[in-house]
Design goal:
The complex is a heterodimer of chains A (124) and B (383). Chain A is mainly beta and 124 residues long. Chain A has no helices and 8 strands. In chain B, a hairpin with a 2-residue loop joins strand 5 and strand 6. Chain A: This is ChsH2 C-terminal OB-fold domain-containing protein.
Chain lengths: 124, 383
């Protein structure tokens, strides 16, 4: 984690809930009141898989996890690549910045339509 | 109220086909018209369930192409895309067109042409339904299945073998389906020894990539009686969505779209889960059969795996599930699958399912898009 890296930005809503990614409105239909940078927190692995049949431009194998952050008592989940294949349910992980998670020009999604950098999860 | 009837149905051979999307749709469409003994000029509404003919093949405008190929002009047409649940959404649109009084004769044709693409390319076309924060990590539908299967097994203390038994059961059922892509039994050992695709799931936990098409003919029950004594009635139907971002669901082992769509369908039909005699579920991955069988209310949460182990869902069990062989054995041409599920229930309820026949008066089809993102549940009854 470095101050130069973009944040792993989640939205906070009036009811206290936080979502990653952010949405125009929260679960209660209200607009967000702020953001949280999840890269400043650690998370717990809820579940994981190692995918061997990956699409064009994606590393193979691709280990993925759904993790849960605890932001001052509010749970926030995220999905992302794991830096290693050695991971278990319940492991504590920290977000690690990656400039390009998959080749933006290899798949069907338009390159300019979205960002391709983000955070992988590394067991602490 | 005049109920909505299905008076004819067809499905093409599923598998690797030389035909392209237009030809597949026309093949099923012509066969369903012949089955219903309806002429093309009687069709008032013509719906086509298809996810991605433009992305797969570079052929768009398929509803109009089909109208011309069937000589069904000037029928109103629309393409129904709801990803993997395009077929179920098409059933909903067709039902709605008749129930609303807008059409007295509606045809639905679902189809997809996929096998000319590599597995990686086809996987990417399907994965393009994901949110950008999922897509950039290389998240695919099979990887959602792996993530959910691990959590399910861990949460409910279910053995890995129980997932394998879904594949064994559905392959056994598919043996008697002449239209199925795979008509081959597999044993549990083969499933458990097959290559890992999305740990803990292996090759035989996944449906294949498939070309194929299926079609249904809908009309008011009062009109149906003019054509045939062999028809079924759509007595309940519901559609629902869940989050686009899969990890935002409170319980990743529950498919809210299945719960909500089935509640609507049960209420409309005035039936309970216990009333269902036979069901076609969206077993794109073995784990999905557990999740749906629980979220439809057939079994308690976390108990679906036991029902499969105990043979409850076998063809000769108390509640046969996927007598057609399911997506697992029959194949999964995206837009066709939800239509083919209803084809199977139709055949079961009119007593024309051949070697697959079970004793059933009430059947249910549950078609799932994305990873539970969009769902249609349809309940049908014998006349």
């Amino acid at each position: 984690m470095s101050d130069e890296n973009p944040p792993m930005e989640a939205n906070r809503y009036p009811d206290g809930s936080i979502t990653y990614p952010g949405h125009p409105v929260g679960p209660d239909g209200e607009e967000p009141v702020g953001t949280v940078d999840l890269s400043a927190y650690t998370a717990t692995v809820l579940t994981w898989t190692t995918s061997t049949a990956t699409p064009p431009g994606v590393r193979q194998p691709n280990t993925l996890a759904i993790v849960e952050f605890d932001v001052d008592g509010e749970p926030v989940r995220a999905i992302g690549q794991v830096t290693t294949e050695e991971v278990e349910i319940g492991d504590e992980v920290e977000p690690v910045y990656c400039e390009e998670l998959r080749d933006p020009d290899a798949g069907i999604r338009e390159h300019e339509s979205q960002e391709w950098d983000g955070y992988r999860f590394e067991p602490v | 109220m005049d109920r909505v009837a299905i008076i004819g149905a067809s499905m093409t051979q599923f598998g690797q086909r030389d035909a392209w999307i237009r030809e597949l749709l026309a093949e099923a469409g012509q066969a369903a018209l012949a089955d219903a003994e309806v002429s093309p000029d009687e069709i008032e509404h013509l719906y086509v369930s298809n996810m991605a003919s433009g992305e797969f093949e570079g052929q768009t405008g398929v509803p109009n192409a089909l109208a011309h190929d069937l000589a069904a002009m000037p029928a109103y047409t629309a393409r129904i895309d709801q990803t993997s649940s395009s077929g179920g959404a098409g059933v909903y649109a067709a039902w709605q067109s008749v129930a609303s009084g807008a059409s007295d004769m509606t045809m639905l044709v679902g189809g997809e042409k996929m096998t000319h693409r590599s597995t990686a390319e086809a996987t990417d076309v399907i994965a393009s339904l994901t949110h950008p924060v999922e897509y950039k990590h290389g998240v695919t539908l099979p990887s959602f299945a792996g993530l959910t299967a691990r959590l399910y097994l861990d949460t409910y203390d279910a053995p890995r073998e129980s997932l394998g038994r879904v594949a064994v059961k559905n392959h056994k059922n598919g043996l008697d389906n002449p239209h199925a892509q795979f008509r081959k039994e597999v044993d549990l050992e083969t499933v458990l020894d097959s290559p890992i695709v999305a740990d803990p799931l292996r090759l035989y936990d996944f449906c294949p990539i498939t070309d194929g098409s299926a079609a249904l003919v809908f009309c008011p029950e009062s009109v149906a009686r003019e054509y045939t004594d062999e028809y079924v009635v759509v007595s309940g139907i519901g559609g629902a969505t869940d989050t686009h971002v899969v990890h935002e669901r409170a319980d990743p082992t529950t498919m809210g779209g299945v719960v909500n769509s089935s509640e609507i369908a049960y209420e409309m039909a005035d039936l309970e889960p216990d009333d269902i005699d036979v069901a076609e579920l969206h077993d794109m991955f073995t784990i999905l059969e557990f999740l749906q069988s629980e979220d439809l209310g057939f079994f308690e949460k976390g108990e679906g795996w036991k029902a499969v182990e105990e043979g409850v869902t076998d063809r000769d069990g108390e509640l046969p599930i996927n007598t057609s062989g399911g997506l697992k054995s029959k194949g999964h041409p995206l837009g066709a699958s939800g239509v083919a599920q209803v084809y199977e229930i139709y055949k079961q309820l009119i007593g024309d399912a051949g070697d697959r026949q079970v004793d059933a008066d009430v059947g249910l089809a549950c078609n799932v898009g994305g990873f539970g993102n969009c769902v249609t549940t349809t309940i049908m009854e014998s006349r």
